[in-house]
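TL;DR need structure tokens for one chain.
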Amino acid sequence: MPLIRLLRALSDGIVRIERILLMLLVCAVVSLVLLNVGFRLFQITLAWADELAVLAMAWSGFVGASLMLRARIDPAVRLLHEALGPAGVRALRVSVALLASAFGLILIWLNWIWFNPLGLYAAGFDISTFEGATFNFIYSGKTPVLVWPVFWFYLIMPWFALTLTIHALTNLAEDLGLIPARDLAHELTPSEGDAIPESAR
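>> reply
TL;DR here they are.
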């Protein structure tokens, strides 16, 4: 089915983006924390670095959760898998994929209501008019330290909702046998050849 293949290609593209984005975010968190620790040796606190580290950590949590769902390395009750047998496990995986897809679609709808782009357009992109008409203050909020518009950081939510839905639907298509399954968990796990040598441990 062309549509299913397109969904799989879209999911694979998102996985590539998420892997790079997750590495950059983790690197940013570590760098910002180490920067602040270094400056605190001289009795200097970089409040903006703390704030950026927290925001980057929050983003990495959403990006990582989406990637984990697609790779099927999210938390699972393995004892239940062993008790159900192959047919039961397949039914369970289909159920999980269906629930995740439904959750993603609901999250997309909630984000649409939250960001309310049509209401913002109707207000002529005037924030005061938009807030007066909707009592939605998402676009006027500022970060405490850097005083940046906080809605830019909230954009991780619609991104997460979209990627989660695409990944969940792809997993569902694999579980139903519509497309071949991809062992993404194995691709994300270092192989024995990539293991840390004993001398370096």
